[in-house]
Amino acid sequence: MDRGEADHRDTSRPLLENLDERLSHLVSTYYPDERKRPGYARLAQLIHESTGKTISGTYLWELATGRKRNVTLEQLAVLAEFFGVPLEYFVNDEVSRRVDAQLKLAIALRDTKVRSLALRAEGLSSASLDALLTIVNEARRVEHLEHVSEQEEPPPPTRTHDALPYDAPHADDRLDRPGARRH
Description:
It is a single chain. By secondary structure, the chain is an all-alpha fold. Helix content is about 55%, strand content about 0%. The chain has nine helices and no strands.
Protein backbone atom coordinates (compact mmCIF):
# COMPACT_ATOMS: atom_id res chain seq x y z
CA MET A 1 0.00 0.00 0.00
CA ASP A 2 1.35 3.43 -0.85
CA ARG A 3 1.48 6.48 1.38
CA GLY A 4 -1.62 8.03 -0.23
CA GLU A 5 -3.75 5.04 0.78
CA ALA A 6 -2.50 5.18 4.36
CA ASP A 7 -3.28 8.89 4.55
CA HIS A 8 -6.78 8.27 3.18
CA ARG A 9 -7.41 5.55 5.74
CA ASP A 10 -6.16 7.77 8.58
CA THR A 11 -8.60 10.54 7.69
CA SER A 12 -11.50 8.14 7.31
CA ARG A 13 -11.00 6.54 10.77
CA PRO A 14 -11.88 9.45 13.08
CA LEU A 15 -15.50 8.31 13.19
CA LEU A 16 -15.21 7.59 16.92
CA GLU A 17 -12.42 10.00 17.76
CA ASN A 18 -14.56 11.82 20.34
CA LEU A 19 -16.30 8.80 21.80
CA ASP A 20 -14.46 9.13 25.10
CA GLU A 21 -15.34 12.81 25.42
CA ARG A 22 -18.97 12.27 24.48
CA LEU A 23 -19.44 9.34 26.84
CA SER A 24 -17.74 11.17 29.71
CA HIS A 25 -19.84 14.25 28.96
CA LEU A 26 -23.06 12.23 29.17
CA VAL A 27 -22.02 10.65 32.46
CA SER A 28 -21.09 14.01 34.00
CA THR A 29 -24.25 15.63 32.61
CA TYR A 30 -26.56 13.02 34.10
CA TYR A 31 -24.57 12.80 37.32
CA PRO A 32 -23.23 16.34 37.90
CA ASP A 33 -22.37 15.76 41.55
CA GLU A 34 -19.13 13.78 41.48
CA ARG A 35 -19.80 12.48 45.00
CA LYS A 36 -23.05 10.89 43.84
CA ARG A 37 -21.81 9.83 40.39
CA PRO A 38 -21.82 6.05 40.07
CA GLY A 39 -18.57 4.27 39.36
CA TYR A 40 -18.28 2.41 36.09
CA ALA A 41 -19.21 -0.93 37.69
CA ARG A 42 -22.41 0.61 39.10
CA LEU A 43 -23.08 2.36 35.80
CA ALA A 44 -22.75 -0.97 33.98
CA GLN A 45 -25.24 -2.44 36.45
CA LEU A 46 -27.67 0.44 35.85
CA ILE A 47 -27.32 -0.02 32.09
CA HIS A 48 -28.08 -3.72 32.44
CA GLU A 49 -31.09 -3.08 34.68
CA SER A 50 -32.44 -0.49 32.28
CA THR A 51 -31.74 -2.06 28.89
CA GLY A 52 -31.30 -5.74 29.64
CA LYS A 53 -27.96 -5.60 27.79
CA THR A 54 -24.54 -6.09 29.35
CA ILE A 55 -21.48 -3.86 29.11
CA SER A 56 -18.76 -4.35 31.70
CA GLY A 57 -17.70 -1.57 34.03
CA THR A 58 -14.09 -2.00 32.94
CA TYR A 59 -15.07 -1.67 29.29
CA LEU A 60 -17.12 1.47 30.06
CA TRP A 61 -14.11 2.96 31.84
CA GLU A 62 -11.87 2.10 28.87
CA LEU A 63 -14.30 3.76 26.47
CA ALA A 64 -14.72 6.85 28.67
CA THR A 65 -10.97 7.29 29.07
CA GLY A 66 -10.14 6.69 25.41
CA ARG A 67 -8.20 3.51 26.07
CA LYS A 68 -10.60 1.58 23.83
CA ARG A 69 -12.49 2.58 20.72
CA ASN A 70 -13.45 -0.83 19.41
CA VAL A 71 -17.11 -0.47 20.19
CA THR A 72 -19.78 -2.25 18.22
CA LEU A 73 -22.89 -0.64 16.81
CA GLU A 74 -24.93 -2.74 19.25
CA GLN A 75 -22.93 -1.40 22.22
CA LEU A 76 -23.37 2.18 20.99
CA ALA A 77 -27.10 1.51 20.67
CA VAL A 78 -27.21 0.31 24.29
CA LEU A 79 -25.41 3.45 25.48
CA ALA A 80 -27.70 5.63 23.37
CA GLU A 81 -30.79 3.90 24.78
CA PHE A 82 -29.56 4.21 28.36
CA PHE A 83 -28.72 7.91 28.08
CA GLY A 84 -31.77 8.69 25.91
CA VAL A 85 -29.78 10.14 23.02
CA PRO A 86 -29.84 9.20 19.35
CA LEU A 87 -27.22 6.68 18.29
CA GLU A 88 -25.79 9.31 15.96
CA TYR A 89 -24.76 11.35 19.02
CA PHE A 90 -21.60 9.28 19.26
CA VAL A 91 -20.57 9.58 15.60
CA ASN A 92 -21.99 12.81 14.19
CA ASP A 93 -20.69 16.21 15.30
CA GLU A 94 -23.85 18.08 14.29
CA VAL A 95 -26.14 15.66 16.14
CA SER A 96 -23.82 15.79 19.15
CA ARG A 97 -23.94 19.61 19.23
CA ARG A 98 -27.73 19.62 18.92
CA VAL A 99 -28.15 17.01 21.67
CA ASP A 100 -25.71 18.83 23.97
CA ALA A 101 -27.66 22.07 23.48
CA GLN A 102 -30.90 20.29 24.36
CA LEU A 103 -29.26 18.67 27.38
CA LYS A 104 -28.04 22.07 28.53
CA LEU A 105 -31.59 23.41 28.26
CA ALA A 106 -33.04 20.43 30.12
CA ILE A 107 -30.50 20.90 32.90
CA ALA A 108 -31.29 24.61 33.16
CA LEU A 109 -35.00 23.81 33.34
CA ARG A 110 -34.43 21.56 36.37
CA ASP A 111 -34.22 24.76 38.43
CA THR A 112 -37.74 25.87 39.41
CA LYS A 113 -36.74 29.55 39.37
CA VAL A 114 -35.41 29.25 35.82
CA ARG A 115 -38.64 27.52 34.74
CA SER A 116 -40.69 30.18 36.53
CA LEU A 117 -38.77 32.98 34.82
CA ALA A 118 -39.23 31.37 31.41
CA LEU A 119 -42.94 30.80 31.95
CA ARG A 120 -43.50 34.36 33.14
CA ALA A 121 -41.64 35.77 30.15
CA GLU A 122 -43.93 34.03 27.69
CA GLY A 123 -46.26 36.45 25.95
CA LEU A 124 -44.12 39.55 26.58
CA SER A 125 -43.33 41.81 23.65
CA SER A 126 -40.09 41.46 21.76
CA ALA A 127 -38.84 44.71 23.30
CA SER A 128 -39.57 43.44 26.82
CA LEU A 129 -37.85 40.13 26.10
CA ASP A 130 -34.79 41.99 24.79
CA ALA A 131 -34.72 44.07 27.99
CA LEU A 132 -34.92 40.92 30.12
CA LEU A 133 -32.10 39.32 28.12
CA THR A 134 -29.98 42.41 28.71
CA ILE A 135 -30.66 42.21 32.46
CA VAL A 136 -29.85 38.49 32.59
CA ASN A 137 -26.65 38.95 30.57
CA GLU A 138 -25.55 41.74 32.90
CA ALA A 139 -26.33 39.61 35.97
CA ARG A 140 -24.24 36.78 34.48
CA ARG A 141 -21.37 39.22 33.88
CA VAL A 142 -21.55 40.57 37.46
CA GLU A 143 -21.55 37.00 38.84
CA HIS A 144 -18.62 36.04 36.56
CA LEU A 145 -20.59 33.37 34.73
CA GLU A 146 -19.75 32.45 31.17
CA HIS A 147 -21.50 34.35 28.42
CA VAL A 148 -24.21 32.42 26.61
CA SER A 149 -24.21 33.35 22.96
CA GLU A 150 -27.24 32.96 20.76
CA GLN A 151 -25.32 30.28 18.83
CA GLU A 152 -25.23 28.13 21.99
CA GLU A 153 -28.97 28.32 22.45
CA PRO A 154 -30.71 25.06 21.55
CA PRO A 155 -32.86 24.90 18.47
CA PRO A 156 -36.58 24.79 19.03
CA PRO A 157 -37.81 21.30 19.93
CA THR A 158 -38.74 19.10 17.01
CA ARG A 159 -40.82 15.99 16.66
CA THR A 160 -38.66 14.28 14.03
CA HIS A 161 -37.11 10.84 14.25
CA ASP A 162 -33.98 12.31 15.83
CA ALA A 163 -35.78 14.34 18.48
CA LEU A 164 -34.66 13.75 22.02
CA PRO A 165 -36.88 12.46 24.75
CA TYR A 166 -36.48 15.88 26.40
CA ASP A 167 -39.14 17.13 23.99
CA ALA A 168 -41.51 14.58 25.45
CA PRO A 169 -43.60 14.82 28.61
CA HIS A 170 -41.73 14.20 31.85
CA ALA A 171 -38.43 15.40 30.38
CA ASP A 172 -37.09 16.24 33.82
CA ASP A 173 -37.70 12.66 34.95
CA ARG A 174 -35.75 11.29 32.00
CA LEU A 175 -32.81 13.58 32.65
CA ASP A 176 -32.75 12.64 36.32
CA ARG A 177 -32.94 8.94 35.56
CA PRO A 178 -30.83 7.97 32.55
CA GLY A 179 -31.89 4.73 31.02
CA ALA A 180 -35.44 4.94 32.29
CA ARG A 181 -37.56 2.73 30.11
CA ARG A 182 -39.70 4.63 27.66
CA HIS A 183 -43.44 4.02 27.77
